[in-house]
Write a structure and sequence with these properties.
heterotrimer; A alpha+beta (553); B mainly alpha (317); C mainly alpha (321); A: alpha+beta; seven-stranded mixed β-sheet; B: 317 residues; mainly alpha; MetI-like fold
């Protein structure tokens, strides 16, 4: 009879399941060691990249860089720590440092290539690859960000070992080109083909120490050493980036030994787990990053269109308390005091916003001076109350905590704050470009060592209906004295004057209080004691910048 | 997230294709006799015997009073922060501990209960109302109306619940009224089906025929004669919906689509404490979880008791 | 019988068509397919061109029509999020979710029937009350609570307490590269348990209730009076009839599971339909979302049909039309 069969099958299966549970770990581990020895390292990845076409809009997630881009794409400059600063250093791709010349007002850069540099199929990396890369980024469709490449007039590849890039207009941030989070593309493999199609699901070629063996979507990415790499050979035989969707489960997986290393986002859950202590593991916290979480203000709407109000808000907030709450257990103290992140310290006044601290008397002075009256605990002017709304990305615990603290602090100072969180897509794709917000809580992220605040604060970049809402100046900052300074930062190749202009710009931004930097978002790295070779963090490439040096004991 | 498990009917309930085919050949026991007076007393007597149900009523009443009277009972404000204190475990000043913003968990639990209970009750009421009306009309009028309404019910049943919920919340906002409406829209079909099945069998009864013969209007017959005999399954489904709605809301909050700050609900508190498993702050996880557990258990036991009270002819009365 | 099935199938077609139209309209109204472009600072003209390419300026019914035509031909579009073919994405996700569903349903069915039968036979015994209590707990526990606690106490905890090199049960994904059957099983236990707990509670209560009704009916009493041994009465006559409504409910529930494992998949990092939905929702990937909703609805309709067929097949009364 059917049911007997069903019963028997069911019992059999349950029996198997039970057996699997009861067999103790060590006995079974001989069969399938996931955390294997012999140099196979498993790293937990909190996010899976959407696609592997690095210059397209579907990419643009740091985990794409960490898992595949930085290990397989050749670049001109490496980002390296020199003392307490980060600097660009020519990579192994270069035979010598690139040479910049500005004769006759035209900016030209010569890149001497290392003749030993080859792709994984043996073909040499040549200047034609530079030309192909420029062409794709400057002229392709659906490109994430063309900044810089759209200022190049031509790339001369007549000498395969020297790329000569001529700029149409001066671009001081030229060092971030042909590298960074994009890299250089193999023209001999991609010319004439649909680049996006060829790369989006992963690619087997490489110009770096590793190559992608497989990308099992939703499960993991496996890297193996690139035998044709002309630099030092990786010590590990295999690196697996395992995709985890749940932060709580991520730490449990680390404790349980399913992953050997992790690079968690600085969320409260991660901070709590680290504070509780990790067994047999090391951890590293780096607050010197390219990320600033700040309170961005829409300077074009009431009541934030008044400098006094913006400053009053800044004086209502105790940023120290917020940073202590979020990152105190990690040893991070002190808020960010510049809209340029710490890695851009040489170019910024890192104390520009230091004057803004909790000072309710100052708030009172500023608001009453601007014609406001405190009625029933809230500021009022001409019958309009100081009602503020704040938008941020939903389901982000750190930001939600920050918002709730801000609510309490602002309430005490006389401002009512309402929270309206939306998902990232709506926030960055609709709300910020359209300007339908007052306060925004999100992070500014720098992925290179060149300051470039013009994109974010020059009045020409304000998204309007006229330009289809396609600028990035979401705060609608329009300060006449600021524009020329920021433009100079973009184009001035004289480092000394460039630094001066950048610092002056910082000070204006602080005086006008267009946005308030709150906390530096630290990078957190954790790795098991069995993993050796981990050396510090890198603001662009994360803890994985020297992945080829990692080894599993 | 699961919609409420429909209360198992006393007899296997098929989905009839046509009005007169395939009806259950065994009549469902008419739990309530024709005279409402003595039936009511009978009901209370049977309910009183079901001790768990009685305890549940008391528990639920206490919970409701404590939560909706949070303004009176809560020792601290809902959003009262104490950053210097941070997260500490249960102590004399804070019976249920505090979270990382130093907010008292007992007070937050009470205020959160308002939202959770409100959602649970409102969803149950709304879905029961809509489901009963549609089921009764479909069952009584039969034929074309029945077919159309049943296809409408099918349409709603066909949508994957959580998915539609998430998208609807994204479109219409995350406040609790939207949550209530959308959850109710996903639960009413189960009530409708059950009511319809009952109505289909009851409408052939003699007293209904008699009422029809004496000229009573359809609506009057439905309300006066048919519905009172459906009360059992309706009430049971309603109580199950309360539990299902509370769990559904907590699921939504876990995914980030539910109640938004600064409001909070039990589900939200649970979701926020997700990362505390295995740490010294796991009390943040256990108290809201217990609150949900207690409420849902009480509601379920009450539902069980009500079903037994309405329907003594079952083997387990 | 075939008549019954045919008629039900025919009724299902307009239902799924209308559902797909409503889905399409709803997704169109909620998500903007060009949002991603705006994020990457594309120019206004590029955005306008994209709108024309996607046909966003045509009337809704036209858009639905062309979408439906392509969908039926197997062209489900390209995901805005990953640029992959939607068929490939959904196919992969479905494969993973199906594994969870199959194992979960199997285990849940066995347990539910077992509990239901036992509780009905030994009513009011201690074990009956225990089972009832446990099933209530299953109904009341939010599934993610259960899942997280299970991970803590059944995987991470034992590893630390007993100083094992691996946790006895794994909770990331469905397999590790290169693992065998045992590895697969160790990955399955926790997610299947979390899933089973959700459904076994309802099913076992249903089964118990159904068994009780059957046991007190006429033909059972007749069989007992005729001297048939109790066990045979229960298993041969009672169980078969009591299973009828349960099978119906099971089929309905299974249909809904394909789109309903969002929480379990999130906690255990299983790249299934639930995870695909969340990723697509957060990225505003309208193309994938529309296809996802229609596929899930189709599953529910298909299993509804299956439920009716199973009911008709198991209950002879229904067959006599």
């Amino acid at each position: 009879m059917h049911r007997w069969l069903r019963r028997a099958a069911g019992l059999g299966l349950s029996g198997c399941a039970l057996a699997a549970v009861l067999i103790p770990g060590p006995a079974a581990s001989g069969l399938a060691r996931r955390v294997a020895s012999g140099g196979e390292i498993v790293v937990g990845a909190e996010q899976e990249p959407d696609c592997a076409d690095w210059i397209a809009s579907c990419a643009g997630s740091s985990w794409g860089v960490f898992t595949m881009q930085e290990q397989t794409m050749p670049r001109v400059f490496d980002v390296v720590a020199r003392g307490r600063q980060w600097v660009y250093t020519p990579s192994l791709l270069m035979a010598g440092p690139p040479v910049l010349s500005t004769d006759g007002g035209t900016q030209v850069v010569r890149y001497p290539l290392n003749p030993r540099a080859v792709w994984s199929d043996g073909a040499p990396i040549t200047s034609t690859d530079f030309r192909y890369t420029w062409d794709q980024i400057a002229h392709g469709t659906d490109i994430f960000d063309r900044t810089g490449y759209d200022r190049i007039a031509s790339v001369d590849d007549s000498d395969p070992h020297t790329a000569v890039v001529t700029f149409r207009t001066s671009f001081a941030g030229w060092r971030q080109l042909f590298g960074g989070v994009y890299g250089i593309y193999p023209s001999h493999l991609l010319q004439g083909r649909d680049r996006d199609n060829a790369m989006k699901d992963g690619y087997s070629w490489s110009g770096g120490p590793f190559k992608v063996q497989a990308w099992d979507k939703g499960v993991d990415v496996v890297l193996v050493p690139n035998p044709a790499y002309w630099g030092p050979r990786p010590k590990a035989s295999k690196i697996t980036f395992k995709f985890l969707t749940d932060t709580a489960a991520e730490f449990q997986a680390f404790q349980g030994g399913e992953i050997n290393a992790a690079y968690p986002a600085p969320e409260p859950d991660a901070v709590r787990s680290i504070k509780a202590g990790l067994t047999d593991a090391s951890s590293l916290v780096n607050a010197d990053t390219g990320n600033i979480e700040g309170l961005w203000m829409n300077n074009a709407v009431f009541p934030l269109d008044s400098v006094a109000v913006r400053q009053a808000i800044a004086y209502s907030i105790d940023r120290n308390a917020i940073v202590r709450l979020l990152f105190g257990p990690l040893g991070v103290s002190g808020p960010s005091n510049s809209l340029n992140p710490p890695i851009l310290a040489p170019y910024s006044d890192q104390h520009a916003f230091a004057g803004y601290h909790l000072d309710l008397a100052k708030v009172r002075q500023l608001m009453t001076g601007d014609g406001w009256q405190r009625v029933g605990g809230l500021w009022q002017k001409n019958g309009r109350t100081a009602q503020l709304t704040i938008v941020s990305t939903a389901a982000d615990k750190r930001r939600e905590l920050t918002e709730q603290v801000l609510q309490a602090q602002l309430r005490r100072a006389g401002f009512a704050l309402t929270v309206q969180n939306r998902d990232a897509n709506t926030l960055f794709g609709q709300i910020l470009p359209a300007g339908s917000y007052q306060l925004g809580l999100y992070a500014g992220v720098a992925t290179d060592l060149d300051p470039g605040l013009c994109t974010v604060f020059c009045s020409s970049n304000i998204p309007t209906a006229a330009n289809g809402h396609s600028g990035s100046n979401y705060t609608r900052t329009s300060i006449p004295a600021l524009d020329p300074l920021l433009q100079q930062v973009d184009t001035d190749n004289n480092d000394a004057t460039r630094v001066q202009a950048s610092k002056a710009a910082d000070r204006i931004l602080a005086a006008q209080q267009v946005a308030l930097p709150i906390d530096p978002l630290p990078n957190i790295a954790i790795w098991s004691k069995r993993v050796s070779g981990v050396r510090g963090d890198n603001p662009v490439y994360g803890m994985f910048w020297n992945l080829s040096q990692w080894q599993l004991q | 997230m699961r919609p409420p498990t429909p209360a198992p009917p006393a007899v296997p309930e098929p989905e009839p294709v046509g009005p007169s085919e395939l009806l259950p050949s065994v009549e469902p026991p008419t739990a309530v006799e024709a005279q409402p007076g003595s039936a009511g007393q009978l009901f209370w007597r049977r309910l009183r015997r079901h001790r768990l149900a009685l305890i549940s009523i008391v528990v639920l009443a206490l919970l409701a009073i404590a939560c909706f009277g949070a303004g009176l009972f809560a020792p601290y404000g809902r959003d009262e922060q104490n950053l210097a204190l941070g997260a500490v475990g249960p102590s004399w000043q804070h019976w249920f501990g505090t979270d990382e913003l130093g907010r008292d968990q007992l007070s937050r639990l009470l205020y959160a209960g308002q939202i959770s209970l409100e959602i649970g009750l409102a969803v149950a009421l709304l879905s029961t109302l809509v489901g009963t009306v549609i089921g009764a009309v479909a069952g009584y009028l039969g034929r074309a109306t029945d077919q159309t309404l049943m296809r409408l019910t099918d349409l709603f049943l066909v949508v994957p619940a959580v998915a539609v919920l998430a998208i609807a919340l994204k479109k219409f906002g995350h406040d609790r009224f939207t949550i209530i409406w959308v959850l109710a829209a996903l639960f009413w079909m189960y009530v409708a089906r059950v009511v319809r099945a009952q109505v289909l069998s009851i409408k052939e009864q003699d007293y209904v025929e008699a009422a029809r013969a004496s000229g009573a209007s359809g609506a009057w017959i439905i309300v006066r004669h048919v519905l009172p005999n459906c009360v059992g399954p309706i009430v049971v489904n309603a109580t199950l919906s309360v539990a299902a709605a509370i769990v559904a809301e907590s699921t939504l909050s876990f995914l980030g689509f539910g109640i938004q700050i600064p409001a909070t609900s039990w589900g939200r508190m649970l979701a926020d404490a997700e990362g505390t498993v295995g740490t010294s702050q796991s009390y943040l996880l256990y108290f809201p979880g217990l609150a949900i557990l207690l409420t849902v258990l009480a509601v379920n036991f009450l539902g069980d008791g009500l079903r037994d009270a309405f329907d003594p002819q079952r083997g387990d009365a | 019988m075939l008549n019954l099935v045919g008629r039900r199938a025919l009724y299902s077609v307009p239902v799924i068509l209308i559902a797909s139209f409503l889905t399409f309209a709803f997704v169109r109204a909620t998500f903007d397919p060009t949002a991603k472009l705006r994020q990457s600072r594309e120019s206004a003209s590029a955005i306008r061109a994209e709108r024309v390419r996607l046909g966003l300026n045509k009337p809704l019914v036209d858009q639905y029509g062309s979408w439906l035509g392509r969908f039926l031909r197997g062209d489900w579009g390209t995901s805005e999020r990953t640029h992959e073919a939607v068929t490939a994405q959904i196919g992969r996700a479905l494969g993973n979710t199906t594994q969870l569903v199959v194992w979960g349903v199997l285990v849940a069915a066995v347990i539910a029937v077992g509990i239901g039968v036992y509780s009905a036979l030994r009513q009011y015994s201690l074990l009956d009350y225990t089972f009832t209590g446990l099933t209530f707990l299953g109904l009341a526990l939010p599934p993610f609570w259960f899942g997280l606690i299970a991970i803590e106490f059944l995987a991470v905890g034992p590893k630390q307490w007993f100083h094992l090199s691996d946790p006895p049960l794994f909770f990331i994904g469905l397999h590790s590269g290169g693992g065998g059957i045992l590895d697969y099983a160790r990955h399955l236990v926790l997610p299947v348990m979390t899933l089973t707990v959700q459904i076994v509670a309802g099913w076992s209560r249903y089964q118990r209730s159904s068994m009780l009704d059957v046991m007190s009916s006429g033909y059972i009493r007749t069989a007992r009076a005729k001297g048939v041994p109790r066990r045979r009465v229960v298993l041969r006559h009672g169980l078969r009839n009591a299973l009828v409504p349960l099978v119906t409910v099971m089929a309905l529930d299974i249909g809904a599971l394909f789109g309903g494992l969002i929480i379990t998949e999130k906690i255990f990092s299983v790249p299934g339909m639930g995870k695909l939905f969340i990723d697509s929702l957060l990225a505003g990937d309208a193309t994938t979302l529309t296809a996802w909703l229609v596929v899930t609805a189709a599953f529910i309709v298909a299993f509804n049909l299956l439920a009716d067929v199973a009911y008709g097949w198991l209950d002879p009364r229904v067959r006599v039309a």
